[in-house]
Amino acid sequence: MTRPDPTTLLLARAFPEAPELAATQRLDRFLQHYWRQRWLLLPGALADHPGLPDLLDGDELAGLACEENADARIVFTTGQHFHQETGPFDPQRFAALGDADWTLLVNGVDLALPGFEPLLRLLRFVPDWRLDDVMVSFAAPGGSVGPHFDHYDVFLIQAQGRRRWELGDRCDGPGYDRASDDGLDLVSNFDPAHVVHCEPGDVLYVPPGLVHHGIAETPCLTLSLGLRAPSTSDLLAAWVHACMEPSGELPLELDPPLPADPGRLAPETIELARRALRDALLRNLDDADPTRFTHWLGCALTQPGRGSAPDLPEPMASNALAARLAAGALLERSPGARLLRHDDGRIRSLFVGGQAFPTDGVSDQALRQLVDGGAIGSRALDTAADCVLATELYNAGWLYLVDPGEERA
Questions:
Q1: β-sheet bridge partners, residue 166
Q2: How many CB atoms neighbour CB 233 within 10 A?
Q3: What pTM did the predictor assign?
Q4: Residue 254 placed within a domain
Q5: Three-class DSSP category at 221
Q6: pLDDT digits (tens, 9 = 90+) for 25-52
Q7: Per-residue pLDDT for 3 more than 50?
Q8: Is the same domain home to 92 and 172?
């Protein structure tokens, strides 16, 4: 029996007013009419997802918030005002929180606990490099982080309890003002245009820039799957940095000769500097070797996210890895690993964690399976080059071994 495409499962119950739509048509409708444009509630989208209610609970989340280097915070609600404390926390802090009006948020939970990979695979209708970490929040009744907007697409999965979401317009709409409340980046003058209620298994999609405000109606656990993309300024800064190799060129002539006032920044100097930078940027982009630019972009888009640098194992030789796989072990992708492949008909490339790995002699099957994820056994590695590449990724921490009978991370 053919397994369903995981990218269509998320939308299987979307658009109940059009039951005749096939799975791919539902995805097309979402991408055409909602993606990056409008919010969409998906009632019961993950109600049948195995393991969703048992991924973790509030106590486990609190335990993660107490670990060293935890990216965690607690937001308190007092009327229309909010304030926060940042972690890591002492376990005794949670005993004093009370029964209402607070929210605990922890980033990178998928890097610390198993079981999140099937959820992330639901989002493979967008490029892998856009997948960010999973943030999980546990809120007591009345808990909230205030009306705000994000700079990225987000799918909000209700795992436990009930949450009310108030949804407004885009952040650049009339009447909205940015407000800072104890370091929280909020929106003032928020008047919601829509209100929806999420229960376990419901999913709410919110596009970038849309103001939204979630309030816990019961103790509840919400998963936030963010899909980020670098801004133009991020890419520009990275490309300029990549171009800043010593070139041996002479200094720019920015000063007109015989200035009337040596202590003055002359308009001619400003124009010369602006023109020189513009010409340099255009020259570096227009004249960039395509292979070099592809190499740079692949490395830039697979840079590890926050907290996702892997733990390095004891180095292993490729023949030792092959022996482990032949004995029944499997290779799994490490949480937070970002892999991209590129093939333009001339050059094949593999980018992982901000690095390019050689692919000479590597089979197409192995390259695709490494990037697409899932367990990798000995039959997926047909050539010696396949095993060498898998060993390099293992030694770099981007793959890990699971022996027969051992629980996967």
A1: 195, 213
A2: 8
A3: 0.86
A4: no
A5: strand
A6: 888 999 999 999 999 999 999 988 877 8
A7: no
A8: yes
